Amino acid sequence: MRSHYCTDLSEKNIGEKVELCGWSNNDRDHGGIIFIDLRDKSGLVQLVCDPADSKHAHKIANCVRDEFVLRAKGTVRARGEKLENPKLKTGKIEIIVDELIVENISEPVPFVVGDNKVGEDIKLKYRFLDLRNTKSYEIFKLRSKVTMATRNFFDKQGFLEVETPILTKSTPEGARDYLVPSRIHNGDFFALPQSPQLFKQLLMCSGFDRYFQIAKCFRDEDLRADRQPEFTQIDVEMSFCDQEQILKTTEDLLIDIFKVAGHKIHAPFNRIRYKDAMEKYGSDKPDLRYDLSMVDVIDVFSNCENEIFSSIAKDKKRNRIKALKVPNGDNIFSKRQMKSFEDYVKKFGASGLGYFQMKEDGLKGPLTKFFSETDLKNIVKISKLETGDVVFFGAGEKNLVLDYMGRFRIYLAELMDIIPKDVFEFVWVVDFDMFEISNDNVKALHHPFTQPKDINTPIEDMESIAYDIVLNGTELGGGSIRIHKKEIQEKVFKLLKISKEEADIKFGFLLDALKFGAPPHGGIAIGLDRLIMLLTNSESIRDVITFPKTQRAQCLLTQAPNSVDDEQLKDLGIRLKEKIKI
User: Fold this and answer.
1) Neighbours of 246 (CB within 10 A)
2) What letter does residue 279 receive in the DSSP assignment?
3) Do 33 and 42 meet the contact criterion of CB atoms below 8 Å apart?
4) Residue ranges of the alpha helices (H) in 235-306?
5) Distance from C-alpha of 537 to C-alpha of 134, rounded to nearest angstrom
6) What tens-digit pLDDT sequence spans the chain (582 residues)?
7) What angle do CA 306, 307, 311 make, to 5 degrees?
8) What would the 3-class secondary structure string for 11-57 be?
9) Largest CA distance in the chain
10) Is the peptide bond before 519 cis (omega within 30 degrees of 0)?
11) CB-based burial of residue 552 (10 Å sphere; 0-12 exposed, 13-18 middle, 19+ buried)?
């Protein structure tokens, strides 16, 4: 039907007869000659329908409206220097139409394809129209190349691509499960997998040695710009490996992926311990494209004459006093801005925000009166202050301070516009805590199947062989070496206060597999959607998924989720309570 795609044509094709197919993107009448911008997946080219060349084609063109499906036959000619359009790849040529065929008409469209000012809800309701724009096509073209590069990489490395079940059992993995009622087993439910975690471990127990999968995963959690209820991850598992082998394999994979996207990255990536990331950046996914970092000044504040700070400083294990230096901040921020910063951190639970300004004659600020000259000099030394710098500090309970000061760090970087564009800064976060402990509640920081460095370490000090890959402040993925001995897995369950009975019910199949010679193994999962989002500089993860859900977990195109009739519910043994409208 077609001889070329629109942007395949150039000045080299001048004089050639061509046949093109696509949609009418725009049409206009200039002095009786009708011009149509024809759009296909590659982009645009201008059609010229002149009655002097073809009265029939001109008559049809006069009826064409936006999004009509067209087939055009004609001759390529140069536009002429003054008529060129430098914004188009085909801006130096046009097609003189001999024959124009309308393959299908279109009703008036709710928005112009490619119009970025249209509300997201409208675009998602008519997603099939929104996807017609060339920018969207290029995103999914890249996504296809990335998945192909992934498959090629693992195939060369001797990995098997294996599909794991979508209908599985509910197991605690951090988020709520999506549940599927069973018709045959009334009252019982399948769960959609939050990850293929347990199945890929079972594959290692099966002797498959090296596995990968482009896996669909499902989590019923609150949504945001980089989350969807269903998402895709590059899932990997290896037997007889250590952490170094998995990190090296992942870096080599990412080098190949970024290469197909037109970027050159270098390995090995930087590494930072989990504790150091939290203490320096207030985040386990630090953005290292800029150099704002925190230092601990709790020792200096222990001598402070202000009772609030001195009492906080007495408990160095539970509390933190963190200083965040902003070079030349005294010349950047107004007094009004300095006051507004306190309002910002209060939104995240802070009771206040202190600061000092480094003047030529020393530190100045409302709190200097509470410190001795020696302590003020120590603050200058520890924070490495120079004239014109401002140092902010937060004080209080450790996790609270690290959280709001970490958020404040990002806020300042965005405010000062110091985050470099078109830079890819990778970092491995390693040596995670094994558990997250809050009062009497103990949770696995990664998941319950992560190998501890030493199972005999006190629970509050225990670290795991776990690692996250972070790019520009976004967690791309994470993994760990897994527990491959039944007795260690049972000890971890016990520390998590999972009883033997509960463990047998939920994880009996895994414990059975560990009894029969499970090999040492480990792996990683990389979020494909997030990776494409960063590679394409997209604002939302919804831009890189063909038919995404809204932040209310709805598909506006298909109107899912939807009600089902009583007969279907009866088959499943389900009766609904009165429906609550949200």
Assistant:
1) 22
2) H
3) no
4) 243-260, 274-281, 298-301
5) 15
6) 999 999 999 999 999 999 999 999 999 999 999 999 999 999 999 999 999 999 999 999 999 999 999 999 999 999 988 899 999 999 999 999 999 999 999 999 999 999 989 999 999 999 999 999 999 999 999 999 999 999 999 999 999 999 999 999 988 666 899 999 999 999 999 999 999 999 999 999 999 999 999 999 999 988 777 789 999 999 999 999 999 999 999 999 999 999 999 999 999 999 999 999 999 999 999 999 999 999 999 988 887 887 888 899 999 989 999 999 999 999 999 989 998 999 999 999 999 999 999 999 889 988 888 888 888 888 999 999 999 999 999 999 999 999 999 999 999 999 999 999 889 999 999 999 999 988 889 999 999 999 999 999 999 999 999 999 999 999 999 999 999 999 999 999 999 999 999 999 999 999 999 999 999 999 999 999 999 999 999 989 999 999 999 989 999 999 999 999 999 999 999 988 876 655
7) 125
8) HHHCCCEEEEEEEEEEEEEECCEEEEEEEECCEEEEEEECCCCCHHH
9) 93
10) no
11) exposed
Strands 362-364 and 354-359: antiparallel
Amino acid at 446: H
Residue 555's identity, in one-letter code, is: C
Nearest to 27 by CA among 2, 44, 9: 44
Residue whose entry in the numeric block shows the structure tokens 């149509």: 36
Type of residue at 102: V
Question: Is the CB of residue 199 less than 8 Å from the CB of residue 215?
Answer: no
User: What is the identity of the amino acid at 273?
Assistant: R
Kind and range of the H or E run holding 364:
strand 362-364
Radius of gyration of the chain (CA): 30
One-letter amino acid at 304 equals C
Contact 426, 270 (CB under 8 A): yes
Query: Which class for 358: exposed (0-12), middle (13-18), buried (19 or more C-beta within 10 A)?
Result: buried
